[in-house]
Amino acid sequence: MTIPAVTLSAVKERFGASNVRCYGLLVLRDPVERLISDVRFHKRLSNENRYAKPVNNSLDELVRAAIDSEAETINCHYAMAIRSLNSAFGEMDRSIIFYEELFQQVTLNALCEKMGLSWHSANFGKQVNKTTSTEAVSEATKRQALDRLRPSYAAVAALLGEERLHRHWATGPLGHWATGHF
Q1: Which residues of 133-157 are buried (b: 16+ CB within 10 A; e: fewer)?
Q2: Cα separation, 137 vs 66, whole angstroms
């Protein structure tokens, strides 16, 4: 998400020099859900690392701290990532999709076709790196995150259309699209 266009272009050129086609794929997840998931992942990782100090803060406290951290929220600022990808890759060499579309055979088939790869049936029943947590994030914290990440929702709506965004993210934090909080 944070790689600038100049770096993406350099990577693409280096692969091209070796006759390897480089393809840009940007997978967009609901920004608030992505932030919460990232914080949950890092909390779990810290608590599982016997060499790290355990994190005793609640998930809600950690998400609130992340909202105020530019380093944490930059991974959810999609406008920059979209601009970088579009600048470095031409229309035929990139795709931008919703995370929720990724786990569908039709999406994978379309990506493979665009990349010139053969495709086969995917095993969507197999989950890797799944984290289950019963620890909740308060509605107030989700609203705060939504306010901070509002530009990401606007960038995605402008690029991929509000209809697709409504279809995939309408049930996200507080139902912000369906209830007109955007």
Answers
A1: eeeebeeebbebbbebbeebbebbb
A2: 13
Contacting residues for 152 by C-beta, under 8 A, at least 6 apart = 31, 76, 77, 78, 79
Please tell me the distance from the alpha carbon of residue 109 to that of residue 103, in angstroms, as a whole number: 11
Total-model pTM: 0.79
- Give the separation between CA 176 and CA 166, rounded to whole angstroms: 9
- Residue 96: strand pairing partners: 26
Q: What is the pLDDT of residue 167?
A: 83
**Per-residue pLDDT, 131:** 67
Phi, psi for residue 148 in degrees, rounded to 5: -70, -35
CA 105 from centre of chain: 20
Q: What is the Cα–Cα distance from 94 to 82, expressed in whole angstroms?
A: 11
pLDDT averaged over the chain? 84
Q: How far apart are CA 9 and CA 21, in angstroms?
A: 12
